[in-house]
Amino acid sequence: MKAWASRGAEALLTLWLLATLCFVLLRAAPGGPFDAEKAAPPEVEAALAAQYRLDQSLPMQYLHWLADVARGDLGPSFQYPDYTVNELLAASLPITVVNGGLALLLALGLGLPLGVWAALRAGRWTDRLLMFGAGLGLSVPKFVVAPLLVLLFAVTLQWLPAGGWDGSWRSMVLPVIALALPNLAYCARLTRASLLEVLDADYLRAARGRGLSGARLLFMHALRPGLLPVVAWLSPALINVVSGSAVVEQVFGIPGIGRYFVQGALNRDYTLVLGVVLVVGAAIVLINALVDWLRSRMDPRLRDSV
């Protein structure tokens, strides 16, 4: 219980430091949320500054914002005046979660069996071909993969829409594939490497010498320890999905938190960017805690440290 309380305090401290650093960096960046090619009349600028507390000193702005966040109020959006940041995130977060969750499931659903299959055929041409494809998937960035998918499946074959979001499976296919490909490739490579190391362990050699079948060796003795590195990788994989959503959602025009983050940063929408940072930071902290708990359930040696 004390360990979890300590981790909770560390999580709150981490989120506070993250939000404070982001607040300072946003204010230090050149430009402002209401800068435009044609300057507004001074009285209009003064009214906007007063409405959004921009006429106050920087420490006072920070304290007011921090007090609002403590009450669960992320403030009004500067660029979307008809919406609060809470409303924008409530509408966009489920979209990002659905796409990211499906992308991770696709990466695990294909990466794990492909990695196991490659490990069992290590050194053969099929193994080399699979690892070459995995290396290619890791080397091509998302901002290249996403337009290529649009060009092939939307423009050339006209099977799927090029962008937009209507909640249907057709609008999910290309974004999910673009998000999943790098993680799928890494999952396959990691599973293969980890399983090869486990299969070469002394206790498995002894079990093999006692005449145990290959299937029993794999499923009863090798698979669980072989998957421990994959479970540990889930945390950076989920973070990769969250960070990659900014690129993928921008390319496909999906109204998720990644797209709002990019637009908010470009438009100096301070409250929107800070709201996205807090939500993503809290998600990362929660993901790390869940992955650590799952690892401790799979490996009793880690339970004292969690």
Automatic annotation (TrEMBL):
One of its GO terms (molecular function) is dipeptide transmembrane transporter activity. The chain crosses the membrane at residues 88-117, 129-155, 167-186, 226-252, 272-294. Pfam families: BPD_transp_1. The lineage of its organism: Bacteria, Pseudomonadati, Pseudomonadota, Gammaproteobacteria, Lysobacterales. Its main location: membrane. Residues 93-295 form the ABC transmembrane type-1 domain. Keywords: Cell membrane, Membrane, Transmembrane, Transmembrane helix, Transport. This is ABC transmembrane type-1 domain-containing protein.
